[in-house]
Structures are given as C-alpha cells and as structure tokens.
Amino acid sequence: MKSIYETMNMFNIDVTSKCLVAECWCPDIFIPKIQEALIQAQRTSQTAIPSVLTRIDTTQTPPTLNITNKFTRGFQAIVDAYGVSNYGEVNPMPYTCVTFPFIFSVMFGDA
C-alpha cells in the first residue's frame, strides 16, 4: 500500500479537471497490457472518470530496458552492480550467464 502512495505522489494533479496525470516511459509492446490494466482499475474502483493513455513522441533518449526471466534475473543483477548500459548498447548479461560459472569455479579451485 505504501508503494502505491509513493507512486501516486509522483503524479501531477490537475485541480480544475480533478484528475491525476502520470508521464512514464514504456515499450510499445507493453501498451496493450497497460490499457488493459487501466480499464481493470477503472472497473474495480467504480469511477465515472475514464483512464486515458496517450502516446507522446519525444526526442529524448529512452531509459535502458533489460527484459529478464527467472534464470537470467540474477545474472542481470550482477551486471547492473557494475553499471547499466545506455540505450542501444549491447547488454553483457548473456555473456555473463555463460562465463560466470566457469570463472566462479576457477576462483574456488584457486583457494
């Protein structure tokens, strides 16, 4: 519940329209899921005010998105501990998945 209020505190409130305005980055492939979640939230809250999702084009560089699964999440955390690659750069996580077990075993063999 606390995280919901922290997120809502980042919204801009439009006093005249009695609404919250949120701006965020999201990949185009996630837009249908976000629209579905907004519709579900409107149904759950039983509000008469509809949710609107508008795509805004920008010239700013988007943030880096590294999609992971249950297996690769730990390796991505190791890579992110050293730094996050910029948008458009190659993610070194796949190479870490392959090389990390071998380097880790060499470290224990050396001890």
Automatic annotation (TrEMBL):
Keywords (A to Z) from UniProt: Hydrogen ion transport, Ion transport, Membrane, Transmembrane, Transmembrane helix, Transport
Any one annotated GO CC term: proton-transporting V-type ATPase, V0 domain
UniProt entry tagged with the keyword Isomerase: no
Subcellular localization(s) per the UniProt record: Membrane
Main location: membrane
GO biological process, one term: vacuolar acidification
Membrane topology label: Multi-pass membrane protein
GO MF, one annotated term: ATPase binding
InterPro entries: V-ATPase_116kDa_su
Family as reported in the entry's similarity comment: Belongs to the V-ATPase 116 kDa subunit family.
Role summary: Essential component of the vacuolar proton pump (V-ATPase), a multimeric enzyme that catalyzes the translocation of protons across the membranes. Required for assembly and activity of the V-ATPase.
Protein name, per record: V-type proton ATPase subunit a
Species of the source: Oppiella nova
